[in-house]
Structure formats: C-alpha cells, structure tokens
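Quarterly update from the structural biology core.
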Amino acid sequence: MNQPFKLFFDECCSKKLARKIKDIYDECYPKLETKHLSEFCSTGTDDQDWLARLEKDWIVLTADRGRDSRKQKLPTICGRLGITHISMTPVLLNAGYRAQKQALLSCWPEILKTPQLPKGTRVSFGYRAINRGLSLIPWLSIEQQAFVIWCKEKGVKISN
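Predicted structure, tokenized:
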C-alpha cells in the first residue's frame, strides 16, 4: 500500500475495533490510519456537521443506514459530499465486536481498494449466505452486486 489508507469509524462502531484494526495491520500497512468519531468530535454531533469537516480521503465505516426519518440520512450526506462509505448491515452490527473484527479481517483486501471507487460510493458490508443458507461469509457489495463484479461491470480499475 503506497498511498495512505484512512478508515473512519462512526459512533455506532466500537472504539476498540478502530484501535484493533490499526494494531493488527500497523506493521504491514504503516500508512494505515484509523480514527473513531469520538477522537474527532463529541458523540451525538449531527452527521452533516462532522461529515462536512471530514477530509474527503477518509473512508467512513458506519452502521447508519439512513433509516431514521427525523435525521438527514448519512448515506445521502456522504453521497452529496463525495465521501465513500462502508455501511454495515444490521445483521453484522448485531453480531457484535468479535464478528465485526473477523469480517473486517476477511474482507480486508477489498476494503483496501475502496479509495479507488468513485467518490461517494456506498458499499454494503455484511454476510452472504452460501450452502443453501447454512453458512454465512463476510462480503462487500455495491448495489446488491459483489464488490469485484460491480467494479468490473462499471469499468472501475481496482489495482492490487
């Protein structure tokens, strides 16, 4: 990884998860930066306020899927501001810290490629059922297509 990779965890994500990912990959990816929202501003800050202050080269990891009708939707704000974001599915969020950590580790090679996506892209991060639903594997998708397939069909070059 020649370029810096910046992964920003919003308040619905564990602070411990942000630190653990940095610890695990620090030696292999010295340009990796992780930050939790609580290190950037106070929790409870409106998404629009903190997202507007966030540098555009950060990839936001969130579980906010924009379902609260009383607030502006984080995915909509990210799209408007050109911030690429990875949205955890409710199943992955509810699976807890250990499952989220394992899923991040499993999908790490694709996660590293998210800065190459068009700015403002929304990536879904959850599980895919295999073996007739008997097994779940972590995976990334865009518009309900596997990450790599979407990139290929859209002509997005994702180098190693």
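The chain is about 35% helix and 25% strand.
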